């Protein structure tokens, strides 16, 4: 009995029909960027200080520059504490007093500046920023700085819950149905996010956006790999992820042009409305239709494919009836993932690598947002290195294999994080280069774990295995804001040390996995156990 892959060899594995589908779905992949990494711009943390009544008037009278004003009136200005560049307290003095000296204002008031009492910020903060962010709008600094962590964690919690539920919808009702409904929900949540007035509602809609957006991206990934022939499947999957990297560049440019977070959110959400037009220009997955016994609809799509590709479908394929192979069918179980030694080892190593990839990838982006430099340029440089990462994967996986490039990518990422932490702050350009190398390494690791995961599980449990292991990616996304934003209070580069340890361990563990290059996908647990 011929398969769909046999038919695609005759009607075109990656011709005009598939290229059109691939292009429109790559637009969807690029549009996922603001949801995944938007915190760096939506939650930008500018330099800030406690507002003290009378300081501005005194500064004007004395003719101070901004630096002189900060040095005279802000406690320990320049130390990187809980508020990334300012202290969370202020001097308890009357800056409106008429006898204040312009050369030693605290000494003229108290005699000895070291005895000046400090108090909490009671009148808000002053931000050195040309635009607005969640931080400036809701004063998410000092004792409320954890709320920024929660903002990003909420979307990752949505990813975690939504990927399971949306994955079921895609398998039950179809890829196209899932895609269109999650696009609509994502647009509605994104627009409502712009207009809600309170922090609580922003977190709620951010969570709901995460609930549907990752499932939407995943449904697109599945669809684009199911309409092409097997020779192109892996390359198309990698390039679909590369489209996300293109989205990073576009998002960076838009954020630079629109430094106000609500207008930025609206600008990146409205174009997604056009994705609803996919109802007319995207096909349903013929593989899914065949799995549901809808052979006539599947063959109609295959006929359209042949027509658009200007190929003629052989006559002996025109009336073919696909049959689902039920013989010896096994029911997937969570216990099967850890029942046997090799399956157990594969599961734990893959779970750890999904977790590490998420923590390092998102963590490096977040750490860049609190680093001293041009945020937009640093983001641009680090996004550009994702393209050579994809190229290296495409070149090496079928020649060198999976295991060694994957392990090297993790180790390079970990070592680069260590080097970045040890480079002094005044050599910022070198820190950026080291961080970009780390970003390239973890991008390679992230893209490789996506498809190697499918190659290490037998057919009957493959989807469940990928779902369970990749859920650790979202767990990592939930905790990484707390790792970054809390540890920088202790030492600005301490998160990088944590990333180093995680990356090096991940690289070492990958070497314990079997090589899957040139192997037939396993059908049973026994096949997996005999991989070595």
From TrEMBL:
<dbReference type="InterPro" id="IPR004749">
    <property type="entry name" value="Orgcat_transp/SVOP"/>
</dbReference>
<feature type="transmembrane region" description="Helical">
    <location>
        <begin position="263"/>
        <end position="282"/>
    </location>
</feature>
<feature type="transmembrane region" description="Helical">
    <location>
        <begin position="494"/>
        <end position="513"/>
    </location>
</feature>
<keyword id="KW-1003">Cell membrane</keyword>
<keyword id="KW-0813">Transport</keyword>
<dbReference type="GO" id="GO:0016323">
    <property type="term" value="C:basolateral plasma membrane"/>
</dbReference>
<feature type="transmembrane region" description="Helical">
    <location>
        <begin position="236"/>
        <end position="257"/>
    </location>
</feature>
<feature type="transmembrane region" description="Helical">
    <location>
        <begin position="177"/>
        <end position="196"/>
    </location>
</feature>
<dbReference type="InterPro" id="IPR020846">
    <property type="entry name" value="MFS_dom"/>
</dbReference>
<keyword id="KW-0812">Transmembrane</keyword>
<feature type="transmembrane region" description="Helical">
    <location>
        <begin position="202"/>
        <end position="224"/>
    </location>
</feature>
<dbReference type="InterPro" id="IPR036259">
    <property type="entry name" value="MFS_trans_sf"/>
</dbReference>
<dbReference type="GO" id="GO:0042910">
    <property type="term" value="F:xenobiotic transmembrane transporter activity"/>
</dbReference>
<keyword id="KW-0472">Membrane</keyword>
<keyword id="KW-0406">Ion transport</keyword>
<protein>
    <submittedName>
        <fullName>Solute carrier family 22 member 2</fullName>
    </submittedName>
</protein>
<feature type="transmembrane region" description="Helical">
    <location>
        <begin position="21"/>
        <end position="45"/>
    </location>
</feature>
<feature type="transmembrane region" description="Helical">
    <location>
        <begin position="349"/>
        <end position="373"/>
    </location>
</feature>
<feature type="transmembrane region" description="Helical">
    <location>
        <begin position="464"/>
        <end position="488"/>
    </location>
</feature>
<feature type="transmembrane region" description="Helical">
    <location>
        <begin position="150"/>
        <end position="170"/>
    </location>
</feature>
<feature type="domain" description="Major facilitator superfamily (MFS) profile">
    <location>
        <begin position="100"/>
        <end position="518"/>
    </location>
</feature>
<dbReference type="Pfam" id="PF00083">
    <property type="entry name" value="Sugar_tr"/>
</dbReference>
<dbReference type="GO" id="GO:0006811">
    <property type="term" value="P:monoatomic ion transport"/>
</dbReference>
<feature type="transmembrane region" description="Helical">
    <location>
        <begin position="379"/>
        <end position="397"/>
    </location>
</feature>
<dbReference type="InterPro" id="IPR005829">
    <property type="entry name" value="Sugar_transporter_CS"/>
</dbReference>
<comment type="similarity">
    <text>Belongs to the major facilitator (TC 2.A.1) superfamily. Organic cation transporter (TC 2.A.1.19) family.</text>
</comment>
<keyword id="KW-0325">Glycoprotein</keyword>
<feature type="transmembrane region" description="Helical">
    <location>
        <begin position="404"/>
        <end position="423"/>
    </location>
</feature>
<keyword id="KW-1133">Transmembrane helix</keyword>
<dbReference type="InterPro" id="IPR005828">
    <property type="entry name" value="MFS_sugar_transport-like"/>
</dbReference>
<feature type="transmembrane region" description="Helical">
    <location>
        <begin position="429"/>
        <end position="452"/>
    </location>
</feature>
